[in-house]
Amino acid sequence: MRARVEAAPKFLNLLQIRFPIGAIASIGHRISGVLLVLSLPLLALALDRSLRSEAEFAALRDLVSAPWRAMLLALLVWAATHHLLAGIRHLLMDVGLGSGLSRARTSAWAVIVAAAIVALIAAARWLS
Amino acid sequence: MRLSIYRFNPETDLKPRMQDYELAPEAGDKKLLDALMRLKTIDDSLSFRRSCREGVCGSDAMNINGRNGLACLTPLIGLKEPVVLRPLPGFPVIRDLIVDMTQFFAHYHSIKPYLINDTVPPERERLQSPAEREKLNGLYECILCACCSSFCPSFWWNPDKFIGPAGLLQAYRFISDSRDTATAERLAYLDDVYRLFRCRTIMNCTEVCPKGLSPSHAIERIRQALVRESS
Amino acid sequence: MRLFLGQRAWVLQRVTALVLLFLLALGAATLLTGPPLGYERWHALATSTHGAVLIVVFFAALGLHGWIGIRDIALDYIHAPMLRLALLAVVGVILFAIVIRVVLTMAVHFARGA
Ligand code: SF4
Ligand code: SF4
Ligand code: FES
């Protein structure tokens, strides 16, 4: 009996599960959070450089001249925007604002779409 | 109609497999459970739980086209074909669509799902005002089908430590009960990284509850009660 | 041992989030109004007493908020106790070092500006 229970399979193939929109917003919150933590050392360095001299400050602005860096920055813009908006959504829901299912669905959509749009605008501006 | 069903027989199979079925539903077949019952007359090796066939007993919860639900409450009309049926995600499979609910019920029992009141009982029953009774609406209706807990990512990662939405909804049902005097103890038990605080308010639980309940709302209220308690 | 267990971490996550939100709003309001942002203005703002303190507070809140987030992820996905402890310790030390680095940065530029 024991051996059988231990060998029991589990169904947990995430690709075969249909995730509600709230779950998508949530995993986005998590991924963007990790990206932001990873970018924290860069942010601290950027702060230092921005204060060193006129030239260093200007060099920071020029970072986006390389397409790959512009892409990376646009990704971080997505992460910051998504994390910020999803965070505000959660704070409001914690005090009972918009925590009903239909409004939570709408706000999850809004967060996902808004963050994507902001990131696209940033990418378009820097890449053109 | 076409169905694709998760099959696993612990006596003969090493691994689960999907089996396709063709079925001609008859006039009276309205719900998915009706189709499954008909299928069972064709292939009696197919195993699933069911009893009340009307959303009361909570035994026929399963993953239907990627979402958890009760077969007996899922209309056949509108189901995308092939209808893909799998056992509840994250639960150990005993056979086909039957899962082991031991852990789920252990969490349920851990929250002491009964009234605790050490005061001397009145001569007749403990009365509640209509307003006090009203607070139990949306909580007492839970049928412990496990649709919610088995759709909760936090429960998938820590099924042994996180109480899960079903157990937490029940916990809040007793916290809200005016006749229960153990609120402080109940809250102290829940104030734990795992038991309560694994919930990230994803709301998958509320999305799938076939009784239209909102475990995420109950969890929100427990957290608020904890903050009030400690401030 | 209740510290950082259960409710505390959850509350701290929200408190740091509110601090960050407030500082971001303040920063955005300051930077986006007034004359266009060049080195001169940025330097003056950042090395003022208020600016320097708020920047340090911002990074401290970021570090704490980030660590709590990583801890939640580790609690979900990493179940080997030693591995989890090691990861959280390493991330904690790195985040702490970053905050110290920001404090030093601000101290140096503040001293130079004064
Ligand atoms: S809360 Fe809903 S989904 Fe969860 S066990 Fe109760 S009835 Fe089922
Ligand atoms: S709201 Fe909480 S309990 Fe419900 S599915 Fe999400 S994590 Fe699970
Ligand atoms: S058979 Fe009882 S709930 Fe579906």
From TrEMBL, chain A:
<keyword id="KW-0812">Transmembrane</keyword>
<comment type="subunit">
    <text>Part of an enzyme complex containing four subunits: a flavoprotein, an iron-sulfur protein, plus two membrane-anchoring proteins, SdhC and SdhD. The complex can form homotrimers.</text>
</comment>
<feature type="transmembrane region" description="Helical">
    <location>
        <begin position="107"/>
        <end position="127"/>
    </location>
</feature>
<dbReference type="InterPro" id="IPR000701">
    <property type="entry name" value="SuccDH_FuR_B_TM-su"/>
</dbReference>
<dbReference type="InterPro" id="IPR034804">
    <property type="entry name" value="SQR/QFR_C/D"/>
</dbReference>
<dbReference type="InterPro" id="IPR014314">
    <property type="entry name" value="Succ_DH_cytb556"/>
</dbReference>
<keyword id="KW-0472">Membrane</keyword>
<dbReference type="Pfam" id="PF01127">
    <property type="entry name" value="Sdh_cyt"/>
</dbReference>
<feature type="transmembrane region" description="Helical">
    <location>
        <begin position="66"/>
        <end position="86"/>
    </location>
</feature>
<protein>
    <recommendedName>
        <fullName>Succinate dehydrogenase cytochrome b556 subunit</fullName>
    </recommendedName>
</protein>
<dbReference type="InterPro" id="IPR018495">
    <property type="entry name" value="Succ_DH_cyt_bsu_CS"/>
</dbReference>
<comment type="similarity">
    <text>Belongs to the cytochrome b560 family.</text>
</comment>
<keyword id="KW-0479">Metal-binding</keyword>
<comment type="function">
    <text>Membrane-anchoring subunit of succinate dehydrogenase (SDH).</text>
</comment>
<keyword id="KW-0349">Heme</keyword>
TrEMBL record, chain B:
<dbReference type="Pfam" id="PF13534">
    <property type="entry name" value="Fer4_17"/>
</dbReference>
<keyword id="KW-0560">Oxidoreductase</keyword>
<keyword id="KW-0003">3Fe-4S</keyword>
<keyword id="KW-0408">Iron</keyword>
<dbReference type="InterPro" id="IPR004489">
    <property type="entry name" value="Succ_DH/fum_Rdtase_Fe-S"/>
</dbReference>
<keyword id="KW-0004">4Fe-4S</keyword>
<comment type="pathway">
    <text>Carbohydrate metabolism; tricarboxylic acid cycle; fumarate from succinate (bacterial route): step 1/1.</text>
</comment>
<dbReference type="InterPro" id="IPR009051">
    <property type="entry name" value="Helical_ferredxn"/>
</dbReference>
<dbReference type="InterPro" id="IPR012675">
    <property type="entry name" value="Beta-grasp_dom_sf"/>
</dbReference>
<keyword id="KW-0411">Iron-sulfur</keyword>
<keyword id="KW-0001">2Fe-2S</keyword>
<dbReference type="InterPro" id="IPR036010">
    <property type="entry name" value="2Fe-2S_ferredoxin-like_sf"/>
</dbReference>
<dbReference type="InterPro" id="IPR025192">
    <property type="entry name" value="Succ_DH/fum_Rdtase_N"/>
</dbReference>
<feature type="domain" description="4Fe-4S ferredoxin-type">
    <location>
        <begin position="132"/>
        <end position="162"/>
    </location>
</feature>
<comment type="similarity">
    <text>Belongs to the succinate dehydrogenase/fumarate reductase iron-sulfur protein family.</text>
</comment>
UniProtKB/TrEMBL annotation, chain C:
<keyword id="KW-1133">Transmembrane helix</keyword>
<feature type="transmembrane region" description="Helical">
    <location>
        <begin position="49"/>
        <end position="70"/>
    </location>
</feature>
<keyword id="KW-0479">Metal-binding</keyword>
<comment type="pathway">
    <text>Carbohydrate metabolism; tricarboxylic acid cycle.</text>
</comment>
<keyword id="KW-0813">Transport</keyword>
<dbReference type="InterPro" id="IPR034804">
    <property type="entry name" value="SQR/QFR_C/D"/>
</dbReference>
<dbReference type="InterPro" id="IPR014312">
    <property type="entry name" value="Succ_DH_anchor"/>
</dbReference>
<keyword id="KW-0816">Tricarboxylic acid cycle</keyword>
<dbReference type="Pfam" id="PF01127">
    <property type="entry name" value="Sdh_cyt"/>
</dbReference>
<protein>
    <recommendedName>
        <fullName>Succinate dehydrogenase hydrophobic membrane anchor subunit</fullName>
    </recommendedName>
</protein>
<keyword id="KW-0408">Iron</keyword>
<comment type="function">
    <text>Membrane-anchoring subunit of succinate dehydrogenase (SDH).</text>
</comment>
<feature type="transmembrane region" description="Helical">
    <location>
        <begin position="82"/>
        <end position="104"/>
    </location>
</feature>
<keyword id="KW-1003">Cell membrane</keyword>
<keyword id="KW-0249">Electron transport</keyword>
